[in-house]
Specification:
The protein is an alpha/beta fold. Helices cover 32% and strands 23% of the residues. A five-stranded mixed beta sheet has the order 1-7-6-4-5, with helices on both faces. A four-stranded mixed beta sheet has the order 8-13-12-11, sandwiched between helices. Helix 3 packs across helix 4 and helix 7 crosses helix 8. It is globular. The two termini are 15 Å apart.
Length: 321
C-alpha cells in the first residue's frame, strides 16, 4: 500500500502585517527585511486561533477530497503554538469537524512537523492500520514572538494547512528524518511551566522565541541538501526525477542556497514566504495547497517535501501526485 494525497486545504488570518507597518514597531525597513528574508508581509491572528485555523484548513481539504469527516480514521495536528494544551488541538479539531471515528493527537516537531506528520500517516496507511488520515500543520506564532526583537519578529506569521491521505495499492517511498538535540539551543522557546513554583516571575521576554539566526542558517543549508540526497538514494531516484522541491518556507536565501548546492534550477523550488512569512509547520501544506489549487501539481509528478527547524529536526519525503 501507499499513501496518496487526495485533498488539500489552507487558512490564514485576515489581518495582514506588511513590512512598512512592522517598521513602525521596531527599527527595520521593507528593503532590509526583503533583502535578508524575502518576506514582504505576514498574516497575524486577531480573532482566529490555532484551533480555528486548523478547522478551516481541514474543512477545505475534506471538501476538495469529497470525503466526509466521519471517514477519517486518524487525525494528526502538528503545532508548537496552540491556544489549548488539554484537550489537544487535534481533539478540538475532531470535535469541530465531526470526525467521530478518528483517533486524534498532536505532534510537536516545529518547522519539520508537517513532514513528520506525513511520514507518520504514510507509515500507518502502508501498514494497513488506517485507511484515511487527515494531517494538519497549524500555527499562531505571533503569540510566541517578541515584538521588540527585530531579529525574530520580522520572520514569523500565522496560518494552517491540511492534507487528506488515503491508502491505495502500490509501493510507497522510504522517508528520511533526523534530530540533533545537542544543537537545539539555536532555536528555543521557554514554557511558562518551568517548575519554579515558589519563585515564578513571568517576565514576558523570557518566554518568547529566541533564535541564533546564523546557526539556523548554517544548519539548514548544510542538512537540507544532505537529507534530500539521502531520501533520493533510499529510493533509487535522481534529482532529475523530481518535478518539485517543496521546502519549509523559512527564508528565501536558504531556499536559494539549497538550489545552488544541489545544482537544481530555482524554478523547481516554489516559494510563498513573501506573502506569509515563516509559518513553521503550516508553511509546507499552505504552499502545497496553493500549488494544488492553481494547477501547478500534475498527476504523476514526483515531489520532495523537506522540513527543518527547532529541535534541531530535519527530514524529507517523496510523494507522487
Amino acid at each position: 500500500m501507499r499513501a496518496v494525497i487526495c485533498g488539500t486545504g489552507s487558512a490564514v488570518p485576515d489581518k495582514v502585517l506588511d513590512n512598512e507597518e512592522l517598521s513602525q514597531m521596531v527599527d527595520t525597513n521593507d528593503e532590509w527585511i526583503r533583502e535578508r528574508t524575502g518576506i514582504a508581509r505576514r498574516h497575524i491572528a486577531k480573532k482566529d486561533t490555532c484551533v480555528s485555523l486548523a478547522v478551516k484548513a481541514a474543512k477545505s481539504a475534506l471538501e476538495q477530497a469529497a470525503i466526509p469527516a466521519e471517514d477519517i480514521d486518524l487525525l494528526i495536528v502538528s503545532t508548537i503554538s496552540s491556544n489549548v494544551v488539554l484537550p489537544c488541538t487535534a481533539c478540538e479539531v475532531q470535535k469541530e469537524i465531526g470526525a467521530v471515528h478518528a483517533a486524534s493527537y498532536d505532534l510537536n516537531a516545529a518547522c519539520t512537523g508537517f513532514v513528520l506528520a506525513y511520514q507518520s500517516a504514510q507509515s500507518f496507511l502502508q501498514a494497513g492500520f488506517y485507511r484515511t488520515v487527515l494531517i494538519i500543520g497549524s500555527e499562531c506564532l505571533s503569540n510566541l514572538v517578541n515584538w521588540q526583537d527585530r531579529g525574530t519578529c520580522i520572520l514569523f506569521g500565522d496560518g494552517a494547512g491540511a492534507a487528506v491521505l488515503r491508502a491505495e495499492s502500490g509501493n510507497g517511498y522510504l522517508p528520511a528524518a533526523h534530530s540533533d538535540g545537542k544543537k537545539g539551543v539555536a532555536l528555543k522557546c521557554k514554557s511558562f511551566f518551568d517548575g519554579d513554583m515558589e519563585n515564578q516571575r513571568f517576565r514576558q521576554e523570557e518566554y518568547k522565541m529566541q533564535m541564533d539566526g546564523q546557526e539556523v542558517f548554517k544548519f539548514a543549508v548544510r542538512q537540507v541538501p544532505a537529507v534530500i540526497m539521502e531520501v533520493l538514494e533510499k529510493n533509487t531516484l535522481a534529482l532529475d526525477d523530481i518535478d518539485w522541491m517543496i521546502l519549509h518556507q523559512a527564508n528565501s536565501r536558504i531556499v536559494e542556497a539549497v538550489s545552488r548546492h544541489l545544482k537544481v534550477p530555482l524554478a523547481k523550488f516554489p516559494m510563498n514566504m513573501q506573502e506569509y512569512g515563516n509559518t513553521s509547520s503550516a508553511s509546507i501544506p499552505i504552499l502545497l495547497d496553493e500549488m494544488n489549487r492553481d494547477g501547478r501539481l500534475k498527476k504523476g509528478q514526483k515531489i520532495i517535501l523537506a522540513g527543518f527547524g527547532a529541535g534541531l529536526t530535519w527530514g524529507a519525503s517523496i510523494l507522487e501526485w
